[in-house]
């Protein structure tokens, strides 16, 4: 599934756009593992965070990849700081050199202002290609006014 401004980085693993590394808010747990990873991915023109990546635990590998485990959350924020989208994952990796990420296991992406929910298993994200793909069991739910598109058409 292609998408232009969806989340340069859903899940997982998504994680870190250039220059964002200096903004890590983490507590070191030994060698190169970190807990409570909190990383801005993009900013709005007014300087506020546009996409924020959070994970319970992760580590940077010698080749520059971030390998993340547990509680992956990507918040999509509007210019006023309100959450208008949420991505969730379990584990995966992000390679800042190629700006690619992969999420292993269940994933979901909710775009609240658009009425879109995308769920499935195993996700790939490639910033250079503007590609976000759910590899297995992809389910797309569209809703308006609290009802699915199918329910809205039945009335």
Properties at a glance:
disordered N terminus; 58% strand; 1 helix; 155 residues; mainly beta
Describe this structure in words.
This protein is mainly beta and about 160 residues long. It has one helix at about 150-155, and strands spanning about 25-30, 35-45, 50-60, 65-75, 85-95, 100-110, 115-125, 130-145, 145-150. Helix content is about 5%, strand content about 60%. A nine-stranded antiparallel β-sheet has the order 1-2-3-4-5-6-7-8-9. A hairpin with a 4-residue loop joins strand 5 and strand 6 (about 100-110). The chain is globular. Mean pLDDT is about 75; it is low at about 1-30.
Taking the sheet with the most strands, its summary is: 9 strands, antiparallel
Q: Return the string of H and E elements.
A: EEEEEEEEEH
Q: Which word captures the global form?
A: globular
- Count of runs of 4 or more consecutive helical residues: 1
- In whole angstroms, the N-to-C terminal distance is 29 Å
Low-confidence stretches: 1-30
